[in-house]
Description:
This protein is an alpha/beta fold. It contains eleven helices and 19 strands. The strands form four sheets. Strands 5-6-4-14-15-16-13-17 form an eight-stranded mixed sheet. A hairpin with a 5-residue loop joins strand 18 and strand 19 (359-363). The two termini are 32 Å apart. The structure holds flavin-adenine dinucleotide.
Amino acid sequence: MKQRYSIWSLLRGSMSQHEAWPPAWRDEEPRAKYDAIIVGGGGHGLATAYYLAKNHGAANVAVLEKGWLGGGNTGRNTTIVRSNYFYPESARLYDFSLKLYENLSRDLNFNIMLSQRGVITLAHSRHDAEMMARAANAMHMNGIDAEMLSREEVIERVPLLDTSAAARFPLLGGICQPRAGCARHDAVAWGYARAASSLGAHIIQNCEVLGFEYQGKRVVGVKTTRGPIQSDRIGIAAAGHSSVLAGLAGFRLPVTSYALQAMVSEPVKPVLDTVVLSPATAAYVSQSDKGEMVMGAGLDLFPSYAQRGSFAGTQRTLAGVLELFPSFSRLPLLRQWAGIVDVVNDSSPIIGATPVAGIFINCGWGTGGFKAIPAGGWLFAHVLATGRNHDLAEPFQLHRFVTGRLIDEAGASGIAH
Ligand SMILES: Cc1cc2nc3c(=O)[nH]c(=O)nc-3n(C[C@H](O)[C@H](O)[C@H](O)COP(=O)(O)OP(=O)(O)OC[C@H]3O[C@@H](n4cnc5c(N)ncnc54)[C@H](O)[C@@H]3O)c2cc1C
């Protein structure tokens, strides 16, 4: 790192009233040629650049971002990290990610404010409770922490829940992953950008990829708003715009893009020290470090590239939250926003080669790819550097839509971000 952050650097910074800090990453002019280009400066793209340099010694790499770093879904999500997936393939992938998160602040020398406050999923019916017992068993079989909670244990953890006799969604209990929680999303993007830049990667903002250049059937570069840039290895990590880029490259992806929205209330004193998620109402809530209640629910149910979300979606989200926490009806809403997420039929990602030689893709994280940023970057860097899939990425190839070996994680994805 150019400048390590520590108690000593903070003290030194205070001497200049914190006016003399160097920029966290360098703003570079694009070179004519790179060993690898990554399209998309979200968490997955930036983490890929970092692990390319750190794990594979490949630093002649550019991340091209059409807007600003984290301006896609990475800076718009509700920051939940967890690994409570059902199938062994997904459990391995997401738990690898959570383990990387557990050491990420130290690794990047950047405080990502990881808070392992637990995620509690509520059971509102006998069927919910049975499905949760099945999920808990699967998680234990996969070596992942999971606890079944009784109704009383949930009430003790979340006393503001509506558990009255009049509650529309009665509470029977829940399932908790204690190691799950939240991390600050901007810090994840900035931390990876800073660490990748300090290892030599070029982070180039305001540089939109408009098309690809070929020699025969092999890619040899990209056309951008800042001119052509050559490279024979290109990784696309563009989330909601993956299918647009695939279209420019000449192949199709089984991805549909939807708006997913979230919102925060005005800040209040601490009232909720865990993440609560209710599949029956589709709503989930946590409290940010600033005190805002962070709320979300399901997708806007029509394909869209508009980063704002519909009013019907906002209304549905708030109605769900208020069924759970009637007292929140007195909180003023501060902000609402949306991101464009890339949804695949089996709710599992795609990390690997594409039909075009030299172009690789990392996409399909849908509503739940923030938690997967460290693993997504690690595995994507592996295939870009070596040309071979990492073992953890092997089940998540585009080819599964031909063979039918789908990994249907709709139960663990969907609203469960
Ligand atoms: C409201 C909301 C809540 C969510 N909550 C959670 C959650 O709690 N937990 C969780 O795990 N996940 C959550 N997610 C999902 C998660 O945010 C995403 O899966 C993840 O951020 C994807 O990261 P990424 O780097 O692939 O994509 P992004 O962060 O979207 O980055 C892709 C980048 O590519 C850029 N780009 C696109 N086209 C081009 C082009 N032609 N040229 C150059 N650059 C281009 C975009 O500008 C963008 O910055 C949520 C998403 C939303 C929208």
